[in-house]
Automatic annotation (TrEMBL):
Top-level taxon of origin: Bacteria
Catalysis: reaction(s): guanosine(2251) in 23S rRNA + S-adenosyl-L-methionine = 2'-O-methylguanosine(2251) in 23S rRNA + S-adenosyl-L-homocysteine + H(+)
Protein location: Cytoplasm
Domain RNA 2-O ribose methyltransferase substrate binding residues, every copy: 6-82
Family that this chain belongs to: Belongs to the class IV-like SAM-binding methyltransferase superfamily. RNA methyltransferase TrmH family. RlmB subfamily.
Function: Specifically methylates the ribose of guanosine 2251 in 23S rRNA.
Name this protein carries in UniProt: 23S rRNA (guanosine-2'-O-)-methyltransferase RlmB
Main localization (coarse): cytoplasm
Residue sites binding S-adenosyl-L-methionine per the record: G199, I219, L230
Keyword Transit peptide found: no
Organism of derivation: Lysobacter yangpyeongensis
Length: 248
């Protein structure tokens, strides 16, 4: 099912026009703006037969509220939305090399956007997070992710613990990141079907989430602190790209 929404900001709109033009319905650019990147976006959109309108800055503010739009927004009909029912097919299509990022209760939309951006860059199979008590994909997330929010399967889970158990049944090994864990993340073999589970900004992994991981591990930090002292988006980049390194 497609839902129309607005995305804002130079990077997000540019990525959508470049990589998913079929779902961009129109681009609105601030009249009189001198930023050459806006001119590039306008030319790129027109080449792809996307409607472009020059409008007053107040019109852009009215569309996206207090979100910083940098003089450009796009009306976007998002491509496919995903649910837990799609997981089996996604895992099977990865042919034994699924890489899933699970976020247990991330609250900050900038963190979620950054995590999605890292996941897309790492070629992750999917990103899973709870439907409740966690930020969902919104305009801020889309902007921060620079288009990644719509280029990678994003799955809001009704019951995260059940989803983790489902992944295990599909042959996915689940590693949870916890600062107090004894085992080091660097000791893991991440070349097969793997899900990497990170907690929210303040509370880390919830109890039921921990209990449904196959193993808890930590990112060793000689400078002191536990994994919560790393921003969740930084930690996700670290663990995702260790998997990429091992699979190279």
């Amino acid at each position: 099912m497609s839902t129309k929404q607005w995305i804002a900001g130079i990077n997000a709109v540019s990525a959508a026009v470049e990589h998913d033009a079929d779902n961009v319905r129109e681009v609105l650019i601030e009249a009189g703006a001198k930023n050459p990147r806006l001119t590039e976006i306008e030319a790129q959109a027109r080449r792809k037969d996307i409607d472009v309108r020059r409008v007053a800055a107040q019109a852009l503010d009215g569309v996206v509220g207090n979100l910083r739009h940098q003089g450009v927004v796009a009306r976007y009909a998002a491509a496919k939305t995903y649910s837990e029912n799609d997981l089996q097919g996604l895992i099977e299509a990865a042919e034994g090399k699924a890489l899933v990022l699970v976020l247990d209760g991330v609250q900050d939309p900038h963190n979620l956007g950054a995590c999605l951006r890292s996941a897309a860059a790492a070629g992750a199979t999917a990103v899973i997070f709870p439907k409740d008590k966690a930020v969902q994909v919104n305009a801020t997330v889309r902007k921060t992710s620079a288009g990644a929010a719509d280029s990678i399967p994003v799955i809001p889970a009704t019951n995260l613990s059940r989803t983790l158990r489902d992944l295990q049944q599909m042959g996915v090994w689940i590693y949870g990141l916890a600062g107090e864990a004894e085992a080091s993340f660097w000791s893991l073999d991440l070349r097969g079907n793997v899900a990497l589970v990170l907690g929210g900004e303040s509370d880390g992994l919830r109890r039921l989430t921990r209990e449904n991981c196959d193993q808890l591990v930590k990112i060793p930090m000689p400078g002191a602190g536990d994994v919560e002292s790393l921003n969740v988006s930084v930690a996700s980049g670290v663990v995702l790209f260790e998997a990429v390194r091992q699979r190279a």
